[in-house]
Design brief:
This protein has about 230 residues and is of the alpha/beta class. It has 9 helices and 4 strands, in the order αβαααααββαααβ.
């Protein structure tokens, strides 16, 4: 399945320009990532399917007449008698059908992501942002002054992660302002403006705490990375 394209070429250029402008007054490096999703959530889909199958077995145990009567009407001959083996086979069939049906339903992505509990979405996005930061940003600048702005579209989550030289100097509430500006635009469906708003809030923080040094070079790409 092809990944949706959330931003135009013009949006990409606007974000790149915002990053480049923000870095003019700072030795900090801003990395921007826009992800379609932060995880496949296969384990969550399997858990829901298993739960539905288990509930079906519970209903079968409480009211077996429904499924047994349905089986008799659809398949069995007149005068059919139930054996323990046939009852167990019926239970296996019901559980398998319910499991497979629930798994197929979750192939529809809006339903799948609606069914993912919010704490799990938050945890997975945070974990993916940290991995992306460690791979592409952390310790990759001379003074450890990298900062990552990460948006995960399907989960409706975002993260701001800073390297040691910045994180140790800035109160967490400062990043909350940038996050508030980012989320305000995202709620209106303006993804590019959301990223630019966060960059605009981060820029003065970087300029204040890691001002641009003589001979400073651009160590990380300014372009938005879509994954």
């Amino acid at each position: 399945m092809a990944r949706p394209r959330y931003l135009s070429d013009e949006d990409h250029e606007r974000i790149r320009a915002a990053v480049a402008e923000a870095e003019l007054l700072s030795s900090g490096e801003i990395v921007t990532i826009l992800a379609d999703r932060s995880d496949g959530y296969t384990d969550v889909a399997l858990a829901w399917s298993a739960l539905v199958a288990f509930l079906a077995l519970g209903i079968l145990a409480i009211a077996p007449e429904f499924y047994m009567g349905l089986y008799d009407r659809l398949i069995a001959d007149w005068g059919h008698e139930w054996t323990p083996r046939m009852i167990l086979s019926l239970a296996l069939g019901v559980a398998s059908l319910k499991f497979a049906g629930m798994l197929l339903l979750q192939l529809w992505q809006p339903l799948k992501f609606w069914m993912i509990p919010a704490p799990i979405r938050t945890m997975r996005v945070h974990g993916r942002a940290l991995r992306a930061f460690r791979i592409g940003t952390e310790k990759r600048t001379t003074g450890r002054t990298g900062i990552l702005i990460y948006i995960s579209m399907r989960e409706h989550r975002a993260e701001i992660v800073a390297d040691e030289a910045i994180a140790g100097k800035v109160e967490p509430g400062v990043w909350a302002e940038a996050m508030h500006a980012l989320l305000a635009e995202l709620r209106e469906g303006r993804t590019a403006d959301a990223m630019i708003a966060a960059i605009g809030k981060v820029a003065p923080v970087l300029a204040a705490h890691v001002p641009r040094l003589p001979g400073d070079v651009n160590e990380l790409p300014d372009r938005l990375i879509e994954v």
